[in-house]
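Handout, section 4.2: multi-component inputs.
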Amino acid sequence: MIRLTPVSYIVLGLLERAGEATPYQLKGMAAMLEDLWSVQHAQVYSEPRRLAEAGLVAERREAGGRRRRTYRLTDAGREAFHDWLRTPTTELTELRDPGLLQLCLGAEPGPLAESQHEAHARKLAEYEAAMAGAGDEMPLGARLTLEAGIGHEREWLRFWSPLRDGSSSSDNR
Amino acid sequence: MIRLTPVSYIVLGLLERAGEATPYQLKGMAAMLEDLWSVQHAQVYSEPRRLAEAGLVAERREAGGRRRRTYRLTDAGREAFHDWLRTPTTELTELRDPGLLQLCLGAEPGPLAESQHEAHARKLAEYEAAMAGAGDEMPLGARLTLEAGIGHEREWLRFWSPLRDGSSSSDNR
DNA sequence: TGAAGCATGTAATTTGTTACATGATTGG
DNA sequence: CCAATCATGTAACAAATTACATGCTTCA
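Output:
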């Protein structure tokens, strides 16, 4: 049996929602996840194939023209996906933050904090705009995820803010 | 010229501190980074070799016995490392959090929040113990990094806490 | 002295990324 | 009708993970 990775579950999950989709369509749907777990262009082509070999998705190929491949879940695939969904992970992720790595390896805090603060502020604004623009049609999971993202960006700002040059110790936050 | 990855800079940075080291010793030093950016056993063997080919580290090999390889920075290596340190990144990392992925793809929030809350509480306790046990000998960068970790764990608790089953909306935090 | 475990390394496999290539569509 | 861009896919490459293999110590 093949090993199912997060990318596998992303593909399975997207296919469940869509009913069926071509790799290109999957790519479009995966855009939603790009800040959380991005999926590479080439991966939306290779991963469904792997899943097809394992019998978790079914592949249908156009007869003529561009011979597009279209995928949909099999029963086994749906089951594998729901098994995963039903089993809460206790796994934590590493931070793997490039800025923090520089800090840890000895970079000057000041300039680094400047750059990082700005980048995180930009990202926060993006998330907040997304949240504001979201009507009630956004599924619960997606909204909560967005809230998590916003919370983390705020945390990053709390962290970097007082480290910036010219930031007095009293003006944190 | 080869491409320098975060792992490359970790190796360069550790070698700068240590003066020189065998892969095994590098592995030991890298333990410090395991929550931030873990480095695989096999990588501390392969990466210094790559760096040696590029002239950024020098390799010396024991004549007899186990023929251990020992590495130290060259001037070019030290320079490459400091160039990187001096150039604050604006790059942000993706969250890539497995629990959040499950949530986003439709998992029941309750049980997931339970698991994640517990895991993050454990990690937070670990960080706090490390902070408490740290004397003044801990370098600034390392201490700040640890503080960032603590901040993020607290943020995760804030996030998951109210989603747990049996958690009323008023008892968040 | 021999079993456990630490130290050291390579190989195989899997994953992820970048680059390349070309077919369809559409708006100017 | 042709240039841009969208859509579709493969191939080559690089990186990371897992598995394997074995030499040295040490202490029961």
